[in-house]
Amino acid sequence: MLKHSKSNAAQVTSAEAKVDMTSLLDIVFIMLLFFIVTTSFVKTQTIDVSKATNQCQGGCEQDSQPILVSINEDSQVIFDNRIIDIEAVRANIEGQLVNSPDATLLVRVNDMALHETLIGTLDQAKQAGIQKVSVARW
């Protein structure tokens, strides 16, 4: 009879050791709701870049010449056969867009050039208002 009373005491202690998780779940859901409401979603700005081809894809004019920007193996930007700074790309492209507002930009890049220079050039072209950009290996 003594053993029987001990097992009842062990069952009573294990029943009393349960933890109520309701309040913890409430706090978790409140935190989840807080993070969902306070999160800001930023739409990234992108530029469409197409690979340069020799074929006309409709609406091509014989008189329109692309604006040519080259990046050599030393990551120097060349515009109109002169080396310019990346920050000057925007002003030069804007000057060319005055004469032909629908001109496309052709960026010729050497394989040894830094990607940073290419991205900087494309960023400056977008700020200049260029709509069509093609990138070719040089």
TrEMBL record:
<keyword id="KW-1133">Transmembrane helix</keyword>
<comment type="similarity">
    <text>Belongs to the ExbD/TolR family.</text>
</comment>
<dbReference type="Pfam" id="PF02472">
    <property type="entry name" value="ExbD"/>
</dbReference>
<protein>
    <submittedName>
        <fullName>Biopolymer transporter ExbD</fullName>
    </submittedName>
</protein>
<keyword id="KW-0653">Protein transport</keyword>
<feature type="transmembrane region" description="Helical">
    <location>
        <begin position="21"/>
        <end position="42"/>
    </location>
</feature>
<keyword id="KW-0812">Transmembrane</keyword>
<keyword id="KW-0813">Transport</keyword>
<keyword id="KW-1003">Cell membrane</keyword>
<keyword id="KW-0472">Membrane</keyword>
<dbReference type="InterPro" id="IPR003400">
    <property type="entry name" value="ExbD"/>
</dbReference>
